[in-house]
Amino acid sequence: MQNTKKELRLKYKSLRKQLSEEEMEEMSLAIANQLLKLNIWDKNYFHVFLPIQEQQEIDTELILHLLSGKDKNILISKSDFESREMTHFLLTDNTQIKKNEYNIPEPVDGIEAPSKKIEVVFIPLLAFDKKGHRVGYGKGFYDKFLSECQAETIKVGLSFFEAEALIEDVHEGDIQLDYCVTPNKIYRF
């Protein structure tokens, strides 16, 4: 079986669909606990994705609790599907969240922050390989966003599943992860 992005997308979407709600909760908790072992907690600006429940994404609520407990600045994004741009907003007690037409929970508005300010990004993905390449949904939002961040921004993928040996069709513009955290393991690249 070939390990192209397209095939991996299909494989992992199907694997995710087989997870029960209970399994997803347990695995999300295990991932949040693994994150505590990373050397990232001296940073201040953290970007977190809000999960698309319909896609069985990792529940990041526990990560949000961790960050607010440590008094970190949390940024969440709004996506523009025409320009493929993401705008980042500071998450505050007053932030209103609303699902867009793709069921992505997004801030309605708020205090905007530039990509350059973000020090750690938690990245949703479908699959990743042992070299730190990832497969997302193929829209290119995160590659564009990550290319706008500082070179030293720490990129942390979050995955329910372990690494594939290799993703065959990696492009030059694909930005590699620094870490990928699964319920059982931390991969460092």
From TrEMBL:
Pfam families: 5-FTHF_cyc-lig
InterPro entries: FTHF_cligase (IPR002698), FTHF_cligase-like_sf (IPR024185), NagB/RpiA_transferase-like (IPR037171)
GO molecular function: 5-formyltetrahydrofolate cyclo-ligase activity; ATP binding; metal ion binding
Residues that coordinate or bind substrate: 50, 57
Cofactor requirements of the protein: Mg(2+)
SUPFAM superfamilies for the chain: NagB/RpiA/CoA transferase-like (SSF100950)
GO biological process, one term: tetrahydrofolate interconversion
Binding site for ATP: 5-9, 134-142
UniProt superkingdom: Bacteria
Keywords for the protein's UniProt record, in alphabetical order: ATP-binding, Ligase, Magnesium, Metal-binding, Nucleotide-binding
Chemical reaction(s) catalysed: (6S)-5-formyl-5,6,7,8-tetrahydrofolate + ATP = (6R)-5,10-methenyltetrahydrofolate + ADP + phosphate
Similarity-based family: Belongs to the 5-formyltetrahydrofolate cyclo-ligase family.
Name this polypeptide is given: 5-formyltetrahydrofolate cyclo-ligase
Organism, scientific name: Flavobacterium commune
